Amino acid sequence: MCKGLAALPHSCLERAKEIKIKLGILLQKPESAIDLVIPYNEKPEKPAKTQKPSLDEALQWRDSLDKLLQNNYGLASFKSFLKSEFSEENLEFWMACEDYKKIKSPVKMAETAKKIYEEFIQAEAPKEVNIDHFTKEITVKNLVEPSPSSFDVAQKRIHALMEKDSLPRFVRSEFYQEFIK
């Protein structure tokens, strides 16, 4: 175990330097002003061109955020609804985490982890999600050595938040009501 700086074994000191370097990379500021540009779509996204869900499928969405997120049409409609309320950052974070988990290359995983952190997790991020300090701390620790599960705790918190808050609002909205007419 690493105790006191003077008594640090060589390998422990190397490990500490390695962690410092990785955290430094993760916490770097954007290199140019172009990195700060946030794309803006003037036209709202339309639901993906897939078959409209059956009434039974749409009714299942009321009780299951997962069923809604698994259906392309439902996901696109939910995203449009959240955009109309200027609250799409939670869904975008959840989707970014899903894509992140599919990355195989360690280099690409580290790059993507940094982007997700900068866009959604760090203080004053452009699309900062509302997670507690404890969850943020766990996520930062997980990012020292990025893995497919680095964002799992934060993603679960955001999923629970969407289930408790966003889904009920969506179900009451006209975006959803058109499916169950």
Protein described:
With 181 residues, the chain is mainly α. It has a domain at 53-176: Regulator of G-protein Signalling 4, domain 2. 59% of the residues lie in helices and 0% in strands. It has helices at 10-26, 55-61, 65-70, 72-84, 89-101, 106-121, 133-142, 152-172, 174-177. Helix 5 packs antiparallel against helix 6 (106-121) and helix 7 (133-142) packs across helix 8. It starts with 9 loop residues before the first helix and ends with a helix. Mean pLDDT is 82; it is low at 3-8 and 29-48.
Determine the CATH topology of the domain at 53-176: Regulator of G-protein Signalling 4, domain 2
CATH superfamily of the domain at 53-176: Regulator of G-protein Signalling 4, domain 2
Q: Note the gap between the termini.
A: 64 Å
| Molecular shape | elongated
How many beta-strand runs? 0
How large a portion of the residues is in β-strands, by DSSP E? under 5%
**Helix content, binned percent:** 55-70%
Order of SSEs: HHHHHHHHH
Largest sheet: number of strands, sense, barrel closure: none
Topology record:
Elements: H1 10-26, H2 55-61, H3 65-70, H4 72-84, H5 89-101, H6 106-121, H7 133-142, H8 152-172, H9 174-177
Helix pairs in contact: 5-6, 5-8, 7-8
Can you describe this structure in just a few lines?
By secondary structure, the chain is mainly α. The protein has a domain of 124 residues: Regulator of G-protein Signalling 4, domain 2. The chain is built from nine helices and no strands.
Q: Which key phrases capture this entry?
A:
Regulator of G-protein Signalling 4, domain 2; 181 residues; 59% helix; mainly alpha
